[in-house]
Amino acid sequence: MAKTHDQTLVVEYDEAGDESVLQARVRPLAPPGPGEVLVQVVAAGINHIDGFIRSGREATWADEPFPRGSGSDFAGIVVSVGDKAFPSGTEVIGHVRAGAQAEYLVVPTTHLVRKPKDVTWEIAGGLYLAGATALATLDELRVGAGDTVVVSAAAGGVGSIEAQLARHAGARVIGTCGDRNFDYLRQVGIKPVRYGEGIADRIREVAPDGVTCFIDNFGQDGRELAAELGVPQARYRSSDDRRLTELALLQDDPDSVARGTDLLARVAELAGRRAFTLLISGFYPLADVAYAYDDLRRLHSRGKIVLGTRPVTTYWTLKARDVQEAGA
Ligand SMILES: NC(=O)c1ccc[n+]([C@@H]2O[C@H](COP(=O)([O-])OP(=O)(O)OC[C@H]3O[C@@H](n4cnc5c(N)ncnc54)[C@H](OP(=O)(O)O)[C@@H]3O)[C@@H](O)[C@H]2O)c1
């Protein structure tokens, strides 16, 4: 635990590798400078791309020196004097290039939006990269009424936001998932279709008038499937396209930060008025960050996995996840 505001617990790593290289360490904390505030982090998200950057599978930023921080998404409370827009006590959601997984963060206010009161800390902590990616993708594809959209991995972090926001925009939405997620997707208004052999026929069965748009999060056979379903090339987004969207959202030049913050503000507002619900199916204490990434890597989380800096218990909260399986 950080004892004062001049030091903080942070998640760092000293070499490329899997989640076992992650370490929680106490580090000194510089006081906020002009245009910056000190945020007491309440919850922080984890994303696949953090793991790809850490392992070296993602070469962007491969030259950054060690030790490196981990994670881009956080939500917390301004605890420094702050400024007019973000005075002390303001509840915020924010993003950074890396290093969000910490108890305290000094961050420029350009990276922050106010947390809507009705958005819980867990959701707010995991909102940035998944939410901004989902919104940017739907914007690019101009998804709206009259569309029939297929979203792959629709029960996952990005997919579940994309699918619900596409529906909110008036589209009919089909989500690919395993049998275990049928109930969940139906609950949020998405037509579930099981992935695997024969999927094209199953999609045609539920979309007899055709599919107009295809968002492939999972990235195995999406391009062939979209072509087989007659989706125009311009309205197909691959997992590689998603990689580029996420990399753009992690850049820290002023234009990229401003775009990321604008998208975050829109996502937060949509979450606040329940245009979508982000299910948190894993909530881990910050110090158990390696277990959280291991869980994510298994590719069966529902919604998001989030880290808490002050959980009320050290027991891992795997909410809304294994209920069906336990009874099966
Ligand atoms: N290209 C890149 O650089 C890049 C960047 C980010 C993410 N990704 C990939 O995008 C995918 C989803 O990311 P996310 O953050 O949304 O992930 P996530 O939250 O980890 O997604 C997990 C979901 O994937 C579903 N799933 C598992 N196997 C599937 C399959 N064969 N077909 C369709 N869905 C399947 C699971 O559903 P069930 O439990 O029902 O099986 C689960 O709901 C991941 O595979 C990730 O590696 C790629």
Tell me what the structure shows.
It contains 11 helices and 15 strands. With 328 residues, the chain is an alpha/beta fold. It has 2 domains: 152 residues, Quinone Oxidoreductase, Chain A, domain 1 (Alpha-Beta Complex), CATH 3.90.180.10; 98 residues, 3-Layer(aba) Sandwich (Rossmann fold), CATH 3.40.50.720. Strands 3, 5, 6, 7, 8, 14 and 15 form a 7-stranded mixed sheet that branches. Helix 5 links the parallel strand 10 and strand 11. The longest helix is centred in the C-terminal third of the chain and has 19 residues. The termini are far apart. The model has no long low-confidence stretch (mean pLDDT 94). The chain binds NADP nicotinamide-adenine-dinucleotide phosphate. NADP nicotinamide-adenine-dinucleotide phosphate binds next to helix 1, helix 4, strand 10 and helix 8.
List the helices and strands and how they pair.
Layout: E1 7-13, E2 23-28, E3 36-45, H1 48-55, E4 68-69, E5 73-78, E6 91-95, E7 104-108, E8 112-114, H2 121-125, H3 128-141, E9 148-151, H4 157-168, E10 172-177, H5 182-187, E11 191-194, H6 199-206, E12 213-215, H7 222-228, E13 236-237, H8 239-250, H9 254-272, E14 280-285, H10 289-297, E15 304-308, H11 323-327
Parallel strand pairs: 9-10, 9-12, 10-11, 12-13, 14-15
Antiparallel strand pairs: 1-2, 1-4, 3-5, 3-7, 3-15, 5-6, 6-8
NADP nicotinamide-adenine-dinucleotide phosphate (NAP) binds next to α1, α4, β10 and α8.
